[in-house]
Design goal:
The structure is a single chain. This protein has 747 residues and is an alpha/beta fold. The protein folds into 5 domains: 30 residues; 86 residues; 75 residues, no CATH class; 264 residues, Aminopeptidase (3-Layer(aba) Sandwich), CATH 3.40.630; 133 residues, Immunoglobulin-like. The protein is 38% helix and 19% strand. Strands 8-9-11-10-12-15-13-14 form an 8-stranded mixed beta sheet, sandwiched between helices. The longest helix has 55 residues.
Length: 747
Amino acid sequence: MAEGSKESTSSTAIQHDIIVEDAEDSVKSPPNSPNSSTRKACYAVLQSWVSKKFMTGCVVLFPVAVTFFVTWWIVQFFDGFFSPIYERLGVEIFGLGFLTSLIFIFFVGIFASSWMGATVFWVGEWFIKRMPFVKHIYSASKQISAAISPDQNTTAFKEVAIIRHPRLGEYAIGFITSSVVLMRENGDEELCSVYVPTNHLYIGDVFLVNSEEIIRPNLSIREGIEIIVSVGMSMPQTISPIERVPRANERVPLNRMMIVRGDEECYALRKEILANFLDIAYYFKKEIDKALQHITETVVAFSLVSTHATRRLLRFVDKSYAASGRRLTEENHLQKLNTLARGYMTNSDLEKAIKAFHGRCGRISRWVVEISNKPGKEEAKPAFKFIGNVHGDEPVGRELLLNLANWLCDNYMKDPLATLIVDNVHLHILPSMNPDGFSLRRRGNANNIDLNRDFPDQFFQMNDDLAERQPETKAIMSWIKRMHFTASASLHGGALVANYPWDGTQDKSKSYYACPDDEAFRYMAKLYSRSHYNMSRSQEFEAGITNGAHWYPIYGGMQDWNYIYGGCFELTLEISDNKWPPANELHMIWQFNKKSMLDLVASVVKSGVHGRIFSSDCGEPLPASIAIKGINYTIKASERLADYHRLLAPGHQYEVSATMPGYKTRSTTIKMGEEAMTVDFILEPTNSFLPRHCYNRSSTKLLEVMSRLPYPFVGGLWLPYLIPFTSQRQDESIDLPPIEEMAPIDS
């Protein structure tokens, strides 16, 4: 008990002393006093300021100190080789040995480049490579030096590569050193050996990566080495992948191949393909044989190959020759595109759109895929067209359009949007407007003409004669005038933006130049941009859209010609920053653009005002014109069914009028919301005594007939209605029967 009491007493005394000391300290400096808080804040600010300035000085002096240290070490190192010789000669000049070393290295380079020097070094290497341990050091150091050698023939690193490593969403930069073929039962696979350094250049890991999954950036070998050595500090702000171009004598897989040849025989071309291009895909031999059988004066044959990324279109091009005795017929083309559409002939109809003349190789047939529940039949539905590959060096559009056709055919009656489009729109898809440019991998066509500068232009005099146009331009112009499209989009590459008219200005200035339907075009462009994965978030273009003239003016473009002469609202869609992305990125680009493309096509049904125009007397359809008050632009109803489809921006009130010479104008006011509206017009003739069988003729033909009748019969009654006819464009040709064959007009 005594010991316990003692311990308790001691503990109490100690606690008492501590409490007393704390009390004294609290009296000396109250913890919550204002002076104490101010002092601590000042100390913290001063300490932070001193630390930052000290670190700034270290950051500034560190590279300077390292540079001087390394330079001084190099000078002393090289100076030590020849300075003893100069000391024996009594010459003591600092740096003379270093200068002599540089001169010596220079002459060694000259000697090594000669035949004799190469022989001497080859003999030296022969001895070194037979010495244990030393040969490994020499081989490794030589590989590193060869990687940065200016002689590209000896480059150990073939290309800079970016691979997904170590997990999804992360990337590693390395170098392609070699390629290897992995032979498996289900097919061979081309792999690339990618060296990824982990400690400067001499320690790293080697990965075998599928050649199509490698991203090849636009970086040289030296730039890649600088990035590694500088631990990423010399990394450029932007990196864009480039399309891989095979080097001389390099073997590439079939799904990356495009052959362009001139006068070779079929068997010689086949032999060259199998010998120089196919070392992993021997099972493609049958597809090659089938394609080469049809290489004749039509010069094009297609073959489909399935890959994990996307189905590729392979083009084999050769000049005509008599030895094969075969021609690529229309049935062959039909069969190929039927295969592409996966056999959905009930949903897609192939319409021959163009036959353009290729200067050297004969004729190339181009085809349009029409997707509708009633393809090839004229209906009171809006028509939409997609055109891809206008520029030969922008091929992404052709891949996307083939994917679009496949998706619509696969998802009809399964997906609501696909069903809506197929049932209510006549969708025409031209995957490649410029296959010659694609084959030659250049912007222009076979004559090296930019097709998007070849159309008649509103601001500058350009010959409207079709004979002066390129074959592709003539075919597109004739096609658009014949089909009566409501809206359209052409797919390009090199940027990410939705472009709308006008594309040019009268004074050739770079400024915003709005067309009459500027609001409607902005609505269409924003619809595409907002449905896109990231177009609307563009930092260069507000909301991901731009007026063409405000971006950069062009003249002779297809977009403006569609609007002026074709009555078609066309957008120019730049769908990929990279014109030639790697094959493994095509599926991603398709996913980014799929919803935008579908929403744009569906907009011709979901928005705007639609309807038909009839005569009140005999009920015949009338191909009248539709005008909107305040908008200086009219569209014309179709000739046979008299249906019209006018795109308008929602959220406004419009006065819609139907006009036709010989009939009273009818107008109505509508409030345009987010949904489409239907407005039919019934027009009354201004002169009820006209024969009923004349009402189903177009106004221009009727007026032409009346103008050819004797003046006393016509009188002054028809003069006011002849004025609209005289203002018709000269390119609208009219075929009239002779006067004596016309039916008499009853009084």
